[in-house]
## 1
Amino acid sequence: MSDYIQKDAKIFVAGHRGLAGSAIVRKLRSLGYENLVLRTRQQLDLLDSAAVSAFFDEERPEFVFLAAAKVGGILANRDFPAEFIAQNLRIQSTVIESAYRTRVKRLLFLGSSCIYPKLAPQPIREDQLLAGPLEFTNRSYAVAKIAGIEMCWAFNRQYGTSYLAAMPTNLYGPGDNYDLENSHVLPALIRKVHEAKQRGDRSVTVWGTGKPLREFLFSDDMADACVFLLNLPEGEFRKLISSPEVAPLVNVGSGSDQTIGELTKTICNALEFDGEIVFDTSKPDGTPRKLMDSSILFSYGWRPKISLKEGIRIAYADFCAQTATSKACGVKNEF
């Protein structure tokens, strides 16, 4: 199957310095795409509609990966809901409207698995969108992402655009945020276990009961899936975006999950920490389970390549590199 996107096509990756965007850039370059249009936040403020409009007028990208977003963990979502909804709505609107106006051929919008109801049947299918109440702790972010999906759908219906929304499960990998206050669970646990080991602690404390089930996908696998989707032949791509009754939405997951307790044990093993795991049940658990049904994506022949164990080792090496503690981390050559 030949690629739809020509190797010399001009491609804009919005949010190319983030976890998802940087992985998409790595994937595109590995496939021979070099005509990439990249802008830092200082060079192009995606919250500035006039600046975004002028950028699209000047550059005229043919394809867009919209990976830019304000993101964070449970605490950040709880404490800054106004920023999460306002900034994400503005980014999405400015980029999608400019993409339409300058006739971008295809656009892929990256959402989040938190768009689905808190108690959605498991694994979660795409048709569960708007089928029930959202998890309260990240509702503002989820509503913004749902609006982005609806915007892609509305533009496709009214203007015949080719915009697809991809919903990744929980991501981790190079370039992740390891801040304990506003990161997601896997990178936060890497830092917690690392610091406990460095201090010589005999235990590490984990928020919640350890019972919630979570699915994780290495960021480079996510990027591989996104490029795969945007490269589908026209007929297959149209099937995903042309239904008047079904949102142009595809889940991107690994197909398996584990409890937070099991995840913590895997991280402890990878970091060679043999202390006790203590669960702080006074802290929130969040959604009980969140496993994506990625059967639509899988039906096209795509599968993830990087196991959780391997991915955690790579992520730990990245954490050590970010914090300039490679020697203390004991990073092995294979990393």
Note: The mean pLDDT is 93.
## 2
Amino acid sequence: MKFIAIIPARYASTRFPGKPLAMLGDKTVIQRVYEQVTKQIKDAYVATDDERIYNHVQSWGGKVVMTRTDHKSGTDRIEEAMEKIEQGGNTFDVVVNVQGDEPFIQPEQIESVCRCFDDATTQIATLGIRFGSNTEAVQNPNSPKIVLDNRGFAMYFSRSVIPYCRGKEPQEWADHFPYLKHIGMYAYRREVLREVTQLPQSSLEIAESLEQLRWLQNGYRIKVGETTTETIGIDTPEDLAKANAQLNNQ
């Protein structure tokens, strides 16, 4: 099975404009993401809509694809990038989407997502990590929860705490159920990526503001790999400061 990784990177971010080009130690955020990804998947491309990012990636020898500026989601940007890459005659079985603001993504996390496709019924794969007994983290709506079936496929994603632990106080729930936090890395079979980008927004997606619910609601099967490694995503300048502190500690 042949894998390719696409890393979407936009310059215009509401909370942190220019984030991909921000310095993390002696390298930019996007270069660190790219270098981590290529430890596991050699065929990797940055997909961007900004010439500054495009030229920067080329300056250190990275592979990069220029895409349109009007995409509504990273998934749409990845589909356009794949169409351009395939014009050169390259074909791939699975497309892995790694966020451009995850400079500490680990090769074993990428491997975990890729191994989900050992199951022939997997159409889409993603990643989760156990919350442990941290009740406050479980209750955070910015940390979506995943409910799995017995074969490791997602039944639902929610910003709410699910399942409800009847007969227990909410502050005790994390001690009585192994809640799973969603980590937003995805992989798609090539034909599935093409299909899901054609779907209109679904009612569940709109309600929870979670794009993956569009795919579930349309009947696609999402396999969930698990990791024990917590990474730092960079959404704000404050996150970048924390990431630099972590880098210094390493």
Note: The chain is about 30% helix and 20% strand.
## 3
Amino acid sequence: MLASQSPARLALLRQAGLTPEVIVSGVDEDAVTAPTPAELALALAEAKASVVAAKPEVQGALVIGCDSVLELDGQALGKPADAEEATARWKSMRGRAGVLQTGHCVWDTEAKRYVSGTASTVVRFGEPSDEEIAAYVASGEPLHVAGAFTLDGRSAPFIEGIDGDHGNVIGISLPLIRRLLAELGVGITELWAPER
């Protein structure tokens, strides 16, 4: 089970041979707080996975919850509230680097326990012009993603590079998921869908 409505997370899991069902948690992200961006991402992931893991229809299943925030100047930046905020954010990010923090939580509902961790990837932003930023914001894409950018969408040309896990920036760190599953005694290859 994937406790996330992110199509990018679902696509990465499918590319890795997994076929999770999606159940959106409905967690009020604004109600969750934590002292640091990394701890916030982890708290959100744990909250989302826990809500879904408590549902009767998922008993006996594994539940994966994730949440991402961009850490810039010590602040956690999630999805921008509107176009104005997205524009201001891009103007503050250009030519700089931030850290994309993604919290991951895996619940084993049968064993009634979970493990969690955070993956961190440095993102180096390019210097898009005001016109390019305006066009990107007008596309609507940055309003739906943490940090107001994606590596696999229209803002990809504005990202100079990353240091760390590419998948983590898209939404889920597959190496971290493999390690968390191993802590629960589950091999990721056991979860692979049969070849068609």
Note: The chain has a mean pLDDT of 96.
## 4
Amino acid sequence: MDRFEKTNAQFEAAMAECRELFASKLHDYRASWRILRPQSLTDQLFIKAKRIRSLEVKQESMVGEGIRPEFIGLVNYGIVGLIQLELGFADTVDIDNDNALRLYDKYAEDSLQLMKRKNHDYDEAWRSMRVSSYTDLILTKIERIKEMEDLAAKGDTARVSEGVDANYMDIINYSVFGLIKLSE
């Protein structure tokens, strides 16, 4: 197995772990996240990434959960963000679990394909990075999303940069890289 095949297999295994938790929570809560407006979803991503950074700096967890569950949360909320961009937010749960999982799988596959293209072009550079760098890059992506949301709220939608969707995909991919590195 070459290094790219190894990365693909590790990425798929990490995404399967994230999907399993997503499906379990979907069973318990249904697609309650459909109610989240874009800003609330961004804040949820922020909370997860900020907690990772706090744990990296403090080297101690007072609630007994480590960094790994937060990276899984970032993957899952990143995919929820992509779904919300497609469907918009709702006032009630308006999709069943099967459709939620179908959409999850669609965006998980899109993220995998993006990672493969970027990994080819960047030649596995992520493997030489520190997990804390993924955290900082994720926080940067979240700040960019916040700025885009704030500009859109003011009616200022002129953009020359990537959209919110590209930032969600990067958050997903950096989080999966974090999961892989934490497993090695």
Note: Helices lie at 3-29, 38-58, 67-87, 97-122, 131-153, 164-183.
